Each structure stands twice: as structure tokens, then as C-alpha cells.
């Protein structure tokens, strides 16, 4: 891999925030799985959040990642439902993960499981949002940092 030219990229303090909100009480493997899926949705929806590829001193290439941190928070089920409503009302890019998705076999089944339920009735176990720092903070008010 060729060395890439240095490009000025925004750094801290970040003007935007990426946050994942997990429902309290999930098993550790579920927390990790939900966080990975939700983060991938933000990356797909907002590709400019992705930095440049990595390369070690040996010249081995590695994939690019988010340019900014991903906050992981937790809260009770009603907080997730409220955060979903607030995020959508603000027009923020939002991804959801429902309890039903733990029992599906792949992307087609996942989308069908979400589509079968009205938004207000989704059994949310996680959601991710991206947007201006203050907007995301208002959407996720009451959540606490994941331990």
C-alpha cells in the first residue's frame, strides 16, 4: 500500500457525536453485537465520518475506522423509546436494534422483523444516533455511560 498524503482532518473537540444507547440488562455478547451492528449503520449512512486507512511500519494495510469516538451509553427501555422519538423528530441519522433481531438469521429477516412492528411498539434493545453534539446530548438525556 502506498503511503497516503497527509490530509487535515477535524479533531477534538468534535462538532458531532456518535452515540450508541443500549438497554439495561443485556448479556455481554448482546451488548457487543448490538453495538457493532448499530455502529455499522452510522458508518454506512454518514461515510464522511470514516477516516483514512491505517498502515503499520511494515507497510501492512488496515481498514479505515471512524475518525471520532463512539460513545456507548445505557438506560432503561422507556429511555430508548423516548430517544428514538426525539432523534427522529430532530431528523438525526438513527439506527435501531430490536429484541426480535436476536432470533433472525440475516439481513433480510432483520429488516422484515423491524418492518412488521409499528415504530412506537418496537422492542428496542439499542439505538445509535449521529448529529450535532448538543442535539445528540438532548436526545440521549438521562442515559449514563456504559460501565
Distance linking N and C termini: 38 Å
- Determine the mean pLDDT: 92
The 3D shape can be described as globular
- Fraction in helix: 25-40%
Q: How would a textbook summarize the main sheet?
A: 5 strands, mixed
Strand content: 15-25%
Element order: H for helix, E for strand:
EHEEEHEHEHE
Helix run count: 4
Instruction: Give the beta-strand count.
Output: 7
Poorly predicted runs are 1-7
Strand order of the largest sheet: 5-6-1-4-7
Whole-number radius of gyration?
A: 17 Å
Could you give a short description of this structure?
The protein is an alpha+beta fold. It is built from four helices and seven strands, in the order E-H-E-E-E-H-E-H-E-H-E.
List keywords for this structure.
147 residues; alpha+beta; five-stranded mixed β-sheet; two-stranded antiparallel sheet; disordered N terminus
Structure notes:
The chain has 147 residues and is α+β, with helices and mostly antiparallel strands. It is built from four helices and seven strands; from the N terminus they run E-H-E-E-E-H-E-H-E-H-E. Helix 2 packs antiparallel against helix 4. The longest helix has 18 residues. It is globular, with a radius of gyration of 17 Å.
Amino acid at each position: 500500500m502506498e503511503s497516503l498524503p497527509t490530509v487535515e482532518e477535524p479533531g477534538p473537540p468534535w462538532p458531532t457525536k456518535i452515540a450508541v444507547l443500549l438497554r439495561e440488562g443485556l448479556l455481554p455478547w448482546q451488548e457487543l453485537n448490538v453495538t457493532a451492528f448499530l455502529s455499522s449503520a452510522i458508518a454506512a449512512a454518514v461515510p464522511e465520518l470514516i477516516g483514512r486507512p491505517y498502515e503499520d511500519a511494515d507497510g501492512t494495510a488496515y481498514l479505515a475506522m471512524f475518525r471520532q469516538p463512539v460513545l456507548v451509553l445505557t438506560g432503561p427501555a422507556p429511555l430508548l423509546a423516548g430517544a428514538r422519538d426525539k432523534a427522529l423528530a430532530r431528523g438525526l441519522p438513527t439506527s435501531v436494534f430490536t429484541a426480535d433481531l436476536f432470533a433472525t438469521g440475516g439481513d433480510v429477516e432483520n429488516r422484515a422483523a423491524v418492518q412488521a412492528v409499528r415504530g412506537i411498539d418496537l422492542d428496542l434493545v439499542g439505538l445509535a444516533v449521529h448529529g450535532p453534539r448538543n442535539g445528540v446530548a438532548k436526545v440521549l438525556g438521562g442515559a449514563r455511560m456504559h460501565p
